[in-house]
Amino acid sequence: FSKLIMDKRLITDAYGTRVTLPGYPSFFSIHNRRSKISELKKKKAAFFIHLLSYFPWIQLVGYSGSVSMDNAVEADDIDIFIITKSHRMWTARFFAVLTAWVLRIKRPRSVNHSTDTVCLNLFFDESNMRVPVVKQTKYVAHEVLQMKVLFQKDRAYSRFIASNDWVFSFYPNAIAASTEQTGMKDIDIKSVCAGRGFIPFGQIGEWFLHVIQRIIMKKPRTKERVGKTQLWFFPDDFEDKIRKIY
C-alpha cells in the first residue's frame, strides 16, 4: 500500500489506519459516523449479552451483520449469532428470546428492521457447526469471518472456524484475522454457572420448548431455515439481493 499512497493512487485518513481512492475522502467521515453509531448499539445490547453468558446452554455469542463491522446506520437492528450446547438449541433460543423480550429489546417478528433491537437470527448446535453446502457462498463466507465473538466456552469459536474452513477458499488472507479471535480466552464456566439456581433442562425440556416454538413459527413471516441443529432467521435476506444483482 505504501507505494500506492506515495504515488497518490490511494489516500489515508488522519491516523493512517484506513485507505480509499482519491476523490472519495467522504468515506472516512461516513465510517467514523457509522462506527460511533455501532458503538452506541453495542452499549445498548451489552447487558443482554452479559445475561446470556450466565446460561449454561450457550457456548458462544457474537455480533454479526453491520454492527460487527462497525458499519451500522441508526435504523439498523443488532444481529446476534449464538452457538449452543449439543441438543440444547431450542432451550437456549427460548431463554434468549425471553430475556430479550423482558428487556424490551427483541425485534418484533412482524417487521424487517427495528432500531436498536436485537435480532436473534442464527443458532447453531455445537454438534453441527458447519454451514450447509447450499449456503457456502462468498457472501456467507464474509458473514462468518466478520462475526465478532463476545464470549465463548470450550473453545467454541476455534471449533466453529475449523468446521467452516471452506471460507478460506474465498478469503485466504483472512486466516490471520480469524486467528486473533481463536486465541480469545474462555469465560470461567464455574464462576458463571455455579450457585445460579438454573433449572437443569434435559431432553424432555428441550423437546417441550421445541414443540412450543415450532407452533409459534407455524406461519413463517421471515426467510426461515429451521433444521435439527441450525436455525436461520432473516427477515430481509441480503444474500438473495446479491444473487439477483450478480
What would you note in describing this structure?
The protein has 246 residues and is an alpha+beta fold. It has one domain. Helix content is 41%, strand content 16%. It contains 10 helices and 8 strands. The protein has helices at 2-6, 26-52, 65-68, 89-102, 138-146, 156-163, 175-182, 189-193, 203-216, 238-245; strands spanning 11-12, 19-20, 58-64, 78-84, 118-125, 148-152, 223-226, 230-234. The chain has a 6-stranded mixed sheet with strand order 6-3-4-5-8-7, sandwiched between helices. Helix 4 (89-102) packs across helix 9. The longest helix is centred in the first third of the chain and has 27 residues, at 26-52. The protein is globular. The chain starts with a helix and ends with a helix. This is Polymerase nucleotidyl transferase domain-containing protein. It comes from Candidatus Roizmanbacteria bacterium CG10_big_fil_rev_8_21_14_0_10_39_6.
Q: Strand portion, in percent?
A: 15-25%
Q: Structural class per helix/strand content? A: alpha+beta
The biggest sheet amounts to: 6 strands, mixed
Element string (H = helix, E = strand):
HEEHEHEHEHEHHHHEEH
Distance between the termini: 29 Å
Give the spatial strand order of the biggest sheet.
6-3-4-5-8-7
Low-confidence stretches: 194-198
Q: How many structural domains are formed by the residues?
A: 1
* Anisotropy-based shape: globular
Brief descriptors of the model:
two-stranded antiparallel ribbon, 246 residues, Polymerase nucleotidyl transferase domain-containing protein, 41% helix, globular, 16% strand, six-stranded mixed sheet, alpha+beta
